[in-house]
């Protein structure tokens, strides 16, 4: 799994950080998402999928290939 974030779409809601704190963080200054792991390990995939589902800005794309 490859994770792609779109910082231009992100509205800083922080839902992704709650769902998968090992993969997503937020910039201190404006809350925009920061990707910590582009290729998260298998045990985190379900958390990452959950983050992508609940992101209100649809700013998280997953390449499951
Ligand atoms: S859930 Fe979406 S909008 Fe909120 S911080 Fe994460 S990427 Fe940005």
UniProtKB/TrEMBL annotation:
One MF term in the entry's GO annotations: iron ion binding
UniProt domain 4Fe-4S ferredoxin-type: residue ranges: 1-29
InterPro entries: 3Fe4S_ferredoxin (IPR001080), 4Fe4S_Fe-S-bd (IPR017896), Fe-S_cluster_ET (IPR051269)
The entry's keywords: 3Fe-4S, Electron transport, Iron, Iron-sulfur, Metal-binding, Transport
Cofactor: [3Fe-4S] cluster
Role, per record: Ferredoxins are iron-sulfur proteins that transfer electrons in a wide variety of metabolic reactions.
Protein name: Ferredoxin
Organism: Kutzneria albida DSM 43870
